[in-house]
Amino acid sequence: MPSQAALLIASFLVTVLVCAKPLGKLLAAMIHDQAFVGCGAIEKGLFGLCGIRRNAMNGYHYLAAILVFNLLGFLFLFIILLSQAWLPFNPQHLPGLSWDLALNTAISFVTNTNWQAYAGETTISYFSSMVGLTVQNFLSAATGIAILFALVRGFIWREQTHLGNAWRDLLRITLFLLLPLSLLSALFFISQGVVQSLHSYVDYTSLEGVKQSLPLGPVASLESIKLLGTNGGGFFNANSAHPFENPNVLTNFVQMVLIFLIPAALCFAFGDVVKDKRQGNALLWAMSLMFIVAVVVVMYAELKGNPSLTLAGGDSAFNWEGKESRFGLLASSLYTVVTTAASCGAVVAMHDSLTALGGLVPLWLMQIGEVVFGGAGSGLYGMLINVILAVFIAGLMIGRTPEYLGKKIGPHEMKMAALYILITPLLVLAGTALALMTEAGRAGISNPGPHGFTEVLYALSSAANNNGSAFGGLSANTPFWNLLLGLVMLLGRFLPFIPLLIIAGRLVKRNIQPRSAGTLPTHGALFVGLLIGTVLLTGALTFIPSLALGPVAEHLQLLTQSAAGSH
User: Fold this and answer.
1) How many helices and strands (H and E) does the chain possess?
2) Distance (Å, rounded) from C-alpha 287 to C-alpha 281?
């Protein structure tokens, strides 16, 4: 079993890095605000058709464009969800969503969270899925990548007053990056048996004589961008555990690769644009090491399982609850870590059924800001904030003004970095406290004790970090939970853009300082260790008290019960 686990982890990471490296070249051209080879005339025509000029934007203008773009997307999706009963491609005649569920869902997909408080096959029409949810999967992913482009330009451009043009970036990312890759992956999924149909559901009689309905729909087109854009919202309630979304072990492996593809490629692109590939490699090393440790812990916890099963006469303690036998424990554990390390809510195993330690790891990965590869764009800009903090800490140790890639990091940038780090923990902890203090919040908890607390903490962590996965034991489709989680998703997505673009706007005005003997190397093993330590210090320590009340207490409770049973 250990050798199988090592082979699975190694083959996955090697495949991701091999596929991501050439994609990084294309992303580097986008960061430099350059057209792809042979696409210049096409881009010029599209920009002219859309009325996009080459006008450069400073940080505030860039932020305003991003906010307006997403506000319009939210209104468009909200109206579709409310009125889907009167719209075409609704063969099941599904009604419109309630206002609170429509609000929650529209915010969820616009913010790249894709939290779903509903069963997709019985709630969302084909039109809502294609024109509403799938479109927002593209646009929300493009938003995160565009924000990263602006931040990276702050580091690499010298003595400028602008960060590029948001409209040009969004159009390029959507049409020349996300759309082609999504088309190719959708065709692959269709070839493997993923459903892509506009026919109504098929009624049939099972072998037991029970009449049932076989759901169909435009699944493959949603599935591809759901994974590639680190979105995560499934067409079916079972998400990627459903055989129509994820038929076999090959599609399961490809799904995991797609989730990490763009985040890894952005690290290679970063090394190219700063003209020092070691910088991008250092970020990849830090992400990969944390990822490997997280995978090993989850695999170990699920293989060790619940010792009470053995004491009760079971032939194994392996935790098979909530997992698909066609994928197995190891692949299910790997997928669990991939989807929560990245900002993706796709699941093949029910996280609510994980062991206490197995559930702690995905919760922790979200709480450190999803910087272990992370979401499309959001993972790398979160890691770069931790880089700024790491060089600041190193500067305090040696008494030098911190700098990164030749750009001095001043007090104002450090304040903005600290603000960025504090936003998400504040939303998670305040939201958890509010839910537990109110009757409406506690009404959604289906399990008492530490596990019920973990369900609430997981929901708020998932919403604030725009992940979208859930502990399914929480009944979240109520006005209270729809509004609370909607607000947390909204603030967790867009509030961090403010300090990010302020930092970028200030850095882009500065010249790059020449290296000296006292310059901190930011590409070696020492810096990788410092960066990992910074991530743990700023992310994990914030949540230790809450984790002690939830998964840690549940694990200790299980050990106590097992010890009592053995006697």
Assistant:
1) 23, 4
2) 10
